[in-house]
Amino acid sequence: MPTYEYECQSCHQRVEAVQKFSDPALTTCEACGGDLRKVFSAVGIVFKGSGFYKNDSRGSSSSVTPPAGTPSSTPASTPASTSVPASSTAATTKTAD
Description:
The structure is a single chain. With 97 residues, the protein is an alpha+beta fold. The protein contains two helices and three strands. It has helices spanning 60-64, 86-92, and strands at 3-8, 14-18, 36-39. A hairpin with a 5-residue loop joins strand 1 and strand 2. 1% of the residues are buried.
C-alpha cells in the first residue's frame, strides 16, 4: 500500500498516511481542523531484476568466446621457453675424467 503525505493549509503540519488506492483522501487536519492537501514529491526508484546492468545485456556466448582476430589469454598461448624442466639441465652436464 502506498504512503501519502498531506499538509494542512492552516497550520502547515505534515501528516503521512498509509492508504489503499481505493481509500478516500484525508480532508481535515487532526491538530487544527484545517483543510489537508496531498503533497507530491519525487518518487524513489529501485531497479531490481536482470537487465539493468552492463553485463546483463550481453549474450552468454560473447563472454565465453573472444572475437575473431583477438589473441586469447589462455595458458596454452604462452611461450614454452619460459619454463625449463629441471631434468633437462641435469642431463646436459658432463663430468671431467
